[in-house]
Amino acid sequence: GGGGGGQETAPSPPAASTGGAPSASTSASTTPAAGAPKRGGKLRVGLNDGGATDTLSPWNIPSYNSDARAEQVYERLYKYDANGAPAPRLAESADSNADATVWQVKIQSGVTFHDGKTLTADDVLYSFRYVADEKNKAESLARLEPIDLAASKKVSDTEIEFHLKRPIGDFPGLLSEKALWIVPDGATEFTKQPNGTGPFTFVEWQPGVRALYKRNPNYWQSGKPYVDEVEILIITDPAARLNALLGAQVDEITFVDFVQAKAQEGNAAIQIVNAAQPQTNPFYVQLDAPPYTDNRIREALKLAVDREAMVQKVELGFGTVGNDLFGKGLPSYNDALPQRQYDPEKAASLLKAAGQHPFTLPLPSSAALPGMLESATAYKEQAKAAGITVQLQKLDAGSYFANDKYLKSPTYQTNWGQSFESQAQDGLFKDSPYNETHWYSKTWAEGFRKAQAIPDADKRNAAYKDLQVPLYKEGGYVVFAFFNTLDAASSKVMGIVPYIASGYENLGGFDFKDHWFAP
Amino acid sequence: MTESVLRVEGLRVGLERGAAIVEDVTLELRPGEVLGLVGESGSGKTTVARALLGYTPPGVVIDAGSVQVAGQEIVGCDERELRRLRGRLISYVPQDPATALNPSIRVGDQVREMLDVHGVEADRGRLVAEILGRVQLPGDAAFRRRFPHQLSGGQQQRLAIAVALACGPRVVVLDEPTTGLDVVTQARILEEIGRLRQEGDVALVYVSHDLAVVASIATRIAVMYAGRIVEEGPAESVIRTPRHPYALGLISSVPDHVAPRRLVGIPGVAVGVGGRPSGCSFAPRCAQRVSECEEAVPPLQRVDAHRSVRCIRWQETPAPKVDLRGVIGDTLDAAPLLEVDALRAEHRGRGASVVAAADVSFTVAPGECVALVGESGSGKTTIARCLVGLHAPAGGRILLDGKPLAARARSRSREERRSVQIVFQNPYDSLNPVRSVEDAVAWPIRSLRDLGRREAAAEVATLLERVRLPERMARRFPGELSGGERQRVAIARALAARPRMLVCDEVTSALDVSVQAAVLDLLAELRRDLGLAVFFITHDLGVVASIADRVLVLEEGDVREEGTVTAVLSAPRSDYTRRLIAAAPSLAIEATGGPSHTSRA
Amino acid sequence: MGTLATTRARWRRHPLAAYAVRRVAVGAVLLMFVSMLVFGATQVLPGDAASAILGRSATAEQKEIYRKELGLDRPLPTQYWSWISGVVQGDLGKTLASRDPVTSFISVRVGKTLVLALATLLVLLPVALALGVWAGIRRDRAADHVISGISLGFIALPEFVTGTLLIASIAVSLKLLPPTSIIESGQSPLTSPRILVLPVLTLCITAAAYIIRMIRAGVVESMSSDYVQMARLNGVPEWRVVVRHALRNSLAPTVQVLALTVQYLIGGIVIVETVFAYPGLGQGLVQAVIARDIPTVQGVAMLLAAIYVVINILADFVVVLLIPKLRTSQ
Amino acid sequence: MIAVAQARGGARRLQFLRAWSARIGLAVFLFVVGVAFLGPYFAPHSPSAEPGIPFSTPSKAYPLGIDYVGEDVLSRVLFGGRTVIIFGALATLLAYAVGGAIGLLAGYSRTLIDPVLMRAMDVLLAFPPILFLLVVATTPRGQGHVALVSAIAVIHMPSIARIVRTAALETSVRGYVEAAVARGDRTHVILRREILPNIWGPVMADAGPRFTVSILLVAAINFLGLGPSPPTADWALMISENRIGITINPWAVVAPALLIAVLTVSLNVVADAIAHSLGKSLDVETLRR
Ligand SMILES: Nc1ncnc2c1ncn2[C@@H]1O[C@H](COP(=O)(O)OP(=O)(O)OP(=O)(O)O)[C@@H](O)[C@H]1O
Ligand SMILES: Nc1ncnc2c1ncn2[C@@H]1O[C@H](COP(=O)(O)OP(=O)(O)OP(=O)(O)O)[C@@H](O)[C@H]1O
Ligand SMILES: [Mg+2]
Ligand SMILES: [Mg+2]
Q: Is C42 helix (H, G, I), strand (E, B) or coil?
């Protein structure tokens, strides 16, 4: 195994325009420690989204509730652990050859599907081929592109040999990919009676309303799950969601606003699940658009933001300062670089040196995501001291990431929530879909490809960290702060581990199998 | 002599705080008598009529006097007591049965409700049929199951009378029961009321502004002016020898087809509630006023055994003067100004179309007044609208000076549009409420005659003088004018175009008789002074007699009869004309020498 | 031909039936145009449905396949025709993602919305009618001023403010009632009626204000009519004047008010269901709009518009039945 | 002379002020409008500056406390009335302009245009208002200000068109209009001189309730999260934005809600009085939306 999110589709700008709420990640905080887990009870979870676009099929998970539902029934070979490292799930281990082009994956034995069938290597290969088949419209199709599935083969009932088209060091990371579920060989019908190896079995579902799951008595992790039933209830309105928890109508909810969390701090009846995911709403400038071609100006913009104030006032302390790099807290993050501080004088002198003092920064922003407009507004005030006038352009929230300005405007406020390497693939290559800053360095790209191929996690991460140095020095992003993802639960619920990996995983990666009720 | 069944003394009805609406009303009535209560609009007739039942509208109270019906005091009774008395002892027939009959209660139940409410124990089904029979309505089940809107106007009024009679009241108050009806229907209702009088066990109070109607049925007449009774006495003698100048004025204003005469209006307008002078209310309009009149309200004094008058100079009141209209020109030889030839007009509705004029031909000579009479719905208005280009004829021609006119006003030349002007029936919608009098009258001058603002303003002053409106009226808005004043403004507006012919569509039918007299007088004067031809539409033969040279009688879109007024009125040839004439009420004051005078000391 | 002629003749013999048929026909044509509008409005989409569903990572080929499958590659009139012919047969199409029938999306929700609407009407109508009539009868007296004044104030309060205030006070602070109206599996609004109380109250507060004002206007009008005056002049007792004369004739306007109330509820329910997380049609519609699920939005919009039109037709018809003049002249 | 005439006209227009309730209503209405338009000059803080701790309760520096992003509620309240009034008024005015034109055309033309236009209005009338806004919100630019204002205008349009049409029909058979037609006045002259001034009253009689509905619709669509993003402070938006903190600092919701309520109630009182003085009471059709 290794660390860092492989080729994850993290819901940054795309998710922003469809999902509408911040995505999550983790780091431990307030889970109450308790004795041995108890069995029994019905766990009711209030989910923040869901509706007409949801489906029972696990191959597309456009919403948080789709993921929460799929996680109960299906499992992957690997899944990120609470700290963002891929951890084996249905797999036992994965080992590669020297150049990371062939991977041997061993799977757990004795795992059964809900219909009683035993999990074998055939099921794994079938599942991967199913995703790779275009006509099945699985959303993770593109992620399987590096795997040569025709050449990959079953070695034994519990062993598969994956052949890759190019070296990939973090193959477990790739296997942790969201919708790479393992389904029984030959399964084609996914919308009637979901059949996986997961901890809960499907009972009923009403799109946009609720879904009910029963404990899988044959689950392979002994003793789990603890609760008898899980019911997922859709409560889109944030106020209603918290009210439902306060009124004990549900036991857990996703997404609590910072202010709601602040207000409930003294409330012993509930716990806030505070996950320090690397979510951020940075500003960007395009490196090839004058005057931003001048790094002194970029540096000045980075120095003109009061990062601490952003964390305290915009995020109410539910976050951490940024250092103009992505993926803070994850294994590949370079935290050895000096932390940039608020230094308006230095910013001003840099601008003067560049002949651009006073400076005017047009900055499109929007209330598309929480905290966005607030931070842009705060920046406007903070930057004044450096002689920077921020011309805030408030754009329509609904189309903020879909309008023609995004990716065209030389400056913009954006959103990311991924590890360094994941963000790099989505945004730092010539052919990346969201190369917002126009970072087009060939040598850097080659260096990245090389690092990607290192099978050893520590070595690979060391290489990634090196790659962050030029970005820190010259990059087009002002990543001033990261904000946490807050969920909440009744204090009676035990076993929720705040989850740092990015994606749709709230409430401890939706692993309800680990949750239990204190007596 | 029988006991009086209705006795009213010193009745005063006023606004809750302040002005009196009616004051010092004293009346007495015996069974079999019919009291006609007359007066112009706003004089307080309805207020008195309802006060007789102890009823006042919200904000209005009976604050003095007494009303006794069959010995039972009404004033001061509580609501429960009043409810018991109303309908049983004294009942009320409203002016407009179309709105006063509950639209969702069947005919039979309208009557039956009275029996229920007043606990009349009887075979109610039979009794209902009987009561309907008394007013000549069919009492069969099918008819009883009808709803009010399925009855004609006359039937509705009969039904209202039946309801009033249901519980055998001693007094029935009828508030303008025939005002909205055409003459023929009116004649039938009056006949009905006459029969009730004959039966003799009920006393009737008949409220009306139409003296001719009242004269035909009342045994006594009370004339009201500005909230007070100004003269009261036996019908005959009040009409023949009015003692109050206002009563005299009223009588002189009534047009009469039997004896066509020149009408004399009462100058000035009535004062409203609250604006009454301290002395005699009529003084400002009175020809025989002396300074004393303005000092105190004159008392109602007995002038003989049966009559009282509220005038200190009643002896001075002259006898009604009857100026017979001079001989009316039979034929005017001039070339016709307007010629209507085989006019056909239709109203196209959904599917079916109504023929409003079938084949109408007539001519109007310059300076001539041609009247068009006919009952409601006979097509009079439609013809008028065709003349001025508001309605496109379905056939025939209209010629002005021998040249055919286009169907639509818009397609006519400006000269043609200018030549023929129209004045409408309803004074309340013929003026734009947001335009001042000056503006309304000046506009045609500017738009049809291309005069400038200033010239137009100067001419407005002359025109207002012409229609005898004071100059200060120019800046008033229609809402601040009385009906008669509005109609004059409408005439001034028509005159502003310098027309050669005026089309008048029932211009006086919404006005009080005294005001009507003044307007007709004005029209006569305009004809004389300006040589204006007038096409005058009316359903009132009396009006025809007093203004027109020639008359056309219209029935269902066809001209039944045409001729000079004298010829048609004295020797009608068609049945229809005869029926109309028979039904038209008349004061029947002898044409020669006036009515006989009793005393004139 | 023969049958047509005889049917026509029969209509003529039953004028009310003819009226009903005519009114329904007009309604059907109206709905046809409504459907075009709904279809047209929802066609102008940002991007297109395929990429909306498949997400950004989908390949061009995937999108093409999906577009074909959804029939989005066909010309608009063809798409409209296949949609509307489905609608006429009760097939509202399939939701974009799950490809479930829109009808089933509607059917799991519509019952709950109906329960909410009926419960609201059940509470609302008697109270609002009584208050409206009372204010109308006691026109310009203290009772009228109090009722009219308070109802005017409530008209200006949006449902979500009322709802939020009620939740904050009654549910969260006093803990008397559940703060949201979520329904667990195995439950229904009828088995746990407590969850209905606050939504019903919220809807009632706003709607009552409207109804009271309209009923009052109707009663004031008939109380000042000539026939009411006449009834009083005929010695009819006051209660009978009110009931038999005034109210009898304000029944018809009342029916129209009822129709308007139902129409109001359609809008109010969308908000209230969202505030209380009540899993009804309104909440579903909002979800569908947010997800840009066109077939669902189209389906629900058509259903609601149809209800709107049907209620109008029914109300018109009842009005015709209640007003003798209209009834007999049809 | 002209001045006198105008004074008379003015007096006629101000007749409604005879009722004391109308006087109070007008005073309150003017006060709220004053707050909305002059408020920004009195605001102690910038509506978007110096974030404090969100949902702090009232204090000396922040008399109404702090809102959900940490801005001063009082300042936002003082700034937030303009947009409510302007958008509400714009939507309402647009509705009157377009609906009025359609109604006038239909009512006065007496040709096939009439039924065609009125049936088109019926189609729009078949949409419950919220539904219409939701459908509009699914379209590309459906969540901007322009879309919202026009959608609300379209919602009002059919009933305004109906009222105007009825009034125009009623007026066009009046004697003074007929007289003008017989005089051969041009259509635009007739509309301007004779018809428009007379239907103005009955048509504007329900402007108050309409304005209320416009504001409430803006608030509702914002609440559903489908409205335009906040330009600056806005009362309707403040209510929905701060809803989550209602138990912490209720003023952030109550103050704007109260102002909207006071604004609309006073406007309705005035509108009622005007309608009353025009002899028209608010009827079912008026309150329809
Ligand atoms: N409720 C009221 N408040 C104020 N003034 C009133 C009220 N009722 C009647 N009046 C006034 O009292 C006067 C008499 O009214 P009333 O209806 O009795 O007259 P009328 O002689 O019957 O007139 P008409 O011939 O027009 O029916 C009128 O000037 C009228 O304006
Ligand atoms: N706009 C219209 N549409 C359809 N039918 C009409 C219309 N106007 C009048 N009619 C019908 O045409 C006929 C003639 O009407 P018109 O108004 O010319 O009669 P009129 O003699 O002026 O009656 P009145 O004395 O009541 O004024 C009547 O039967 C009437 O019902
Ligand atoms: Mg009267
Ligand atoms: Mg006529």
A: helix
